Amino acid sequence: MTDATLVLVLNSGSSSVKYQLIDMADGSRPAAGLVERIGEPSFPADHAAAIGLIGAELREKGLGLDSPRIAAIGHRVVHGGRYFSRPALITDRVLDEVRRLVPLAPLHNPANITGIEITRALRPDLPQVAVFDTAFHATIPESAARYAIDTELADEYAIRRYGFHGTSHQYVSRHTAELLGRSPESVNVIVLHLGNGASASAVAGGVCVETSMGLTPLEGLVMGTRSGDLDPAVLLHLQRVAGMSVEEVDVLLNRRSGLKGLCGDNDMREVTRRMAEGDQRATLAFDVYIHRLRKYVGAYTAVLGRVDAIAFTAGVGENSAAVRAAAMANLDALGVELDPALNAVRSAEARLVSTESSRIAVAVVPTDEELEIAEQTFAVIRRTDE
Ligand code: AMP
Description:
Layout: E1 6-12, E2 17-23, E3 31-35, H1 47-60, E4 70-77, E5 88-89, H2 92-100, H3 109-122, E6 128-132, H4 142-145, H5 151-156, H6 166-179, E7 188-194, E8 198-204, E9 207-211, H7 233-240, H8 246-255, H9 258-263, H10 268-276, H11 280-304, E10 309-313, H12 314-319, H13 321-328, H14 340-344, E11 351-352, E12 361-364, H15 369-385
Parallel strand pairs: 1-4, 4-6, 7-10, 10-12
Antiparallel strand pairs: 1-2, 2-3, 5-6, 7-8, 8-9, 11-12
Residues 195-196, 224, 267-269, 314-316, 319-320 line the site of adenosine monophosphate (AMP).
């Protein structure tokens, strides 16, 4: 087993499977790819076929699924409920527990489970680890995790704030501390994960104390197609007054809201391009997006008390200087001073974009969920080996 240093990271979604093979000995990635449109005509019929294709792609690189150099498979699992606060070595019991959580993530957990079942059947001898999107947020205190509704009802139906994108928030908060040359334990960070989905977190000394997503990934920031926060009575109003069904409201809030709902485009590149042409709907969409983001920065400043850094990550956070500039504008009173020249630089590296005199550092830290999953997976199997 000693020279088995490869971890295969699998992210099985409802219609796609993403994979990366990462060598923990040197950080190299001998293979990576995406099999998509599962179930569509002339694409893989099902997840088993998709993973078969991945096996074939790996074999072409001389590293098939049967390769003795693979030490473990790390699976991204979206919902770990209250049960999983850390990655778990997959056993029948763990898998049963993940199945029990399907009602909390009906779109995500079933696909994650299918991926696990297939690779377990193919390599029953290989350790497999589930890394949960919710786990990093398991430390948020009850005061932040509880919704102010009937306690018994909330407990009966497991209704509370779980948070998502945890692997990214964990990775980015740790690497922000590294960028500052300090230990994670000594640093308080606000992480802004702004991708197609978007979430913020407040991380105190490496421990997550608050995050913007809740029971599901719908709460919080304005996203590409999701509304984020709204008055819950909007749902009642849509059903009572607009005559919409539960399903219709679900689709509206998850797929036809956010930037898309506000201006018709969910891609921030398109929104800013239209803004530059003077498009008013795109400008309003941008303004709503930024306003919400700034509200969360203010709120999390109060939650943390002392903030050392604000870190931007994911597609929008890493690439949109316009979003960073608008989100950080006029925050001198909080101790935030963005450096416009540094902010305008395009780079794939982790970097600071604040002035030297800024009391709070502003950082751009590219996220790497696959690497985080591989590292956590490797750590679990090493612990098990001991
Ligand atoms: P992610 O979910 O992290 O892959 O982020 C995807 C989103 O990033 C896309 O929907 C785009 O809106 C956004 N994005 C990617 N590149 C850029 C860019 N150069 N400028 C602004 N937004 C970008």
